[in-house]
Amino acid sequence: MAEERATAAVLDRLHATVLARKGADPSSSYTAKLYSRGTPKIAQKLGEEAVETVIEAVRGNRDGVVSESADLLYHLMVLWADAGVAPEEVYAKLAAREGTSGIDEKNARPKAG
């Protein structure tokens, strides 16, 4: 359980850091540069990191998966901050789904169209 709290704390600190970079000089911060390029670029970078994570998993490169996962989480935090999403909202959504079958949860979602 302590490990879970430590993980959430790391993510919370990362989120605070990326929030603090909003409005910063893009020449002084990669995060500020992402913000200055807008939501489409932030989303593109998140997608790239997701693909890179998948590639490392398919290669069976455990260290690569760890490294790319860190990049993926960072870019996810930037996207959340850009969208005005707080980590606690995502944690709450996950907690609400805890103990529910993934199939049941998916079937309970509103149908598109």
TrEMBL record:
GO molecular function, one term: phosphoribosyl-ATP diphosphatase activity
Localization of this protein: Cytoplasm
Keyword Nucleotide-binding attributed: yes
Known catalytic reactions: 1-(5-phospho-beta-D-ribosyl)-ATP + H2O = 1-(5-phospho-beta-D-ribosyl)-5'-AMP + diphosphate + H(+)
Record bears the keyword Transmembrane helix: no
Enzyme Commission numbers on file: 3.6.1.31
Top-rank lineage group of the source organism: Bacteria
Family annotation (InterPro entries): HisE, PRib-ATP_PPHydrolase-like
CDD domains per the UniProt record, alphabetical: NTP-PPase_HisIE_like
Major location (coarse): cytoplasm
Pathway membership: Amino-acid biosynthesis; L-histidine biosynthesis; L-histidine from 5-phospho-alpha-D-ribose 1-diphosphate: step 2/9
Keywords, comma-separated and alphabetical: Amino-acid biosynthesis, ATP-binding, Cytoplasm, Histidine biosynthesis, Hydrolase, Nucleotide-binding
Family (UniProt): Belongs to the PRA-PH family.
Name of the molecule in the record: Phosphoribosyl-ATP pyrophosphatase
Organism of derivation: Azospirillum oleiclasticum
